[in-house]
Amino acid sequence: SEKQAEKAVHQKKEQSKTKCRKARRRHINLIAEFNHRQRKNIWLETHIWHAKRFHMVKKWGYCLGNSPTEKSYRACYRAMTKHCLLQDLSYYCCLELKGKETELLKQLARICSIDTGLTFQEASCLSGRFEGSLNLYRADRYPEDMLGPVTFIWKPRDGSENRQLWIWVHPALKQDILRELKAIFQCSEPEEACITEPVTTSIQEEKQVEVVMRLGNKRKKEDKEGEKAVPVKKIIGDGTRDPFQSYSWIARTTGVAISDRSMEILRYRLIGPLSNSVLTETLKAASVQTV
Fold first, then answer.
1. CA separation (Å) from 146 to 42, 112, 181, 216, 246?
2. How many CA atoms lie within 13 A of 234 on its CB side?
3. Do 106 and 181 fall within a single domain?
4. Which of 20, 57, 137, 260 sits CB 3.0–4.6 Å from 142 for a disulfide?
5. Is 119 inside a domain boundary?
6. Within 10 Å of residue 50's Cβ, how many Cβ atoms?
7. From 20-29, 111-120, 135-144, 220-229, the region with the lowest mean pLDDT
8. Where on the tree of life does the source sit, at the highest rank (predicted)?
9. How many CA atoms lie within 13 A of 119 on its CB side?
């Protein structure tokens, strides 16, 4: 019996050593931990990758990679000049406009000027083939009261007079530009279907975090897939918006709707001569089936 007891203890020790230190220290509920840790500063989808390799800074309500911990400047320069370098620009805010094309162009003409270059009405951009960039001003105030630079993309026409426009702005400029857009389109009423839910950490998640603190080194038994499971980060809003605020507004007179799509649409920038090749190999065209 003593030999069997010693054998059982020995097997238990061997079994506990099979898991690496990272696995043994893993949080019981990683999703709850991630959401708990990004209450004040939102993480991008690539946060974990950057946090292991970059010095992180807290700016504009986000936690962003500022400078690499290793001297990888030569590697980045080589990728930009000869291969492909990817940057995560998802912290840029996306404002979506929906409505009749004539109404959109009529009001948008008030916050930009043809004297500075192209406008929202540029033919190549209006068709949806190219992205445009311009400076925005307060309504009817050009050349004074500049709001800041933006980029924009029109959704290609589908035969309808209704169009869809995405305007990308820096998070530091988002509130001012959003306020001006809501003013010129008179979008003051929140859309009932688009009221955001309070996205603070739930009571259940709080209890899970407290349980983890009490358990100490005790770990929850995992199934065979547990070690390979990757937690899904829940988007809890963006760093430029109070989670209790609405994120979509509509003008009852014109039907124009403005939606704040920040952190809902990810944005990456590819730099280098092989960027097109990388995209071609990565993205596969879907087969569209018509009924």
1. 28, 9, 14, 55, 26
2. 16
3. yes
4. 137
5. yes
6. 18
7. 220-229
8. Eukaryota
9. 15
Can you name the residues that pair with 148 across neighbouring β-strands?
136
The band of 100, judged by pLDDT with boundaries at 50, 70 and 90, is: very high
Tens of pLDDT, residue by residue over 134-152, are 999 999 888 888 999 999 9
Quick: pLDDT tens for 51-94: 888 889 998 888 898 888 887 788 888 999 999 999 899 899 99
Long-range CB contacts (< 8 A, 24+ apart) of 172-179? 172/60, 173/147, 173/148, 174/93, 174/95, 174/240, 174/262, 175/240, 176/147, 176/148, 177/95, 177/136, 177/147, 177/148, 177/150, 178/95, 178/258, 178/260
For residue 178, is it within any domain?
yes
Tens of pLDDT, residue by residue over 173-217, are: 999 999 999 999 988 767 654 433 433 444 444 444 443 344 444
- Break the chain down into helix, strand, coil percent, rounded to 5: 35, 20, 45
Angle at 209 between CA 205 and CA 215, to 5 degrees: 140
| Range(s) of the domain holding residue 98 | 93-190+246-265
d(CA 87, CA 90): 9
Query: CA 50, CA 65: separation in Å to the nearest integer?
Result: 6
At residue 126, does pLDDT exceed 80? yes
Question: Is residue 148 left, alpha or beta, with left meaning phi > 0 and alpha meaning psi from -120 to 50?
Answer: left
Give the SS3 label for residue 21: helix
For residue 127, what are the CA distances in angstroms to 104, 155, 156, 181, 277?
14, 8, 6, 22, 25
Number of domains in the chain: 2
Residue matched to tokens 């996306």 = 94
This prediction has a pTM of 0.70
Considering the chain, what is the average pLDDT of its residues?
77
Two structure tokens written together for 41: 């500063």
Q: What is the DSSP letter of 143?
A: T
Contact 166, 95 (CB under 8 A): yes
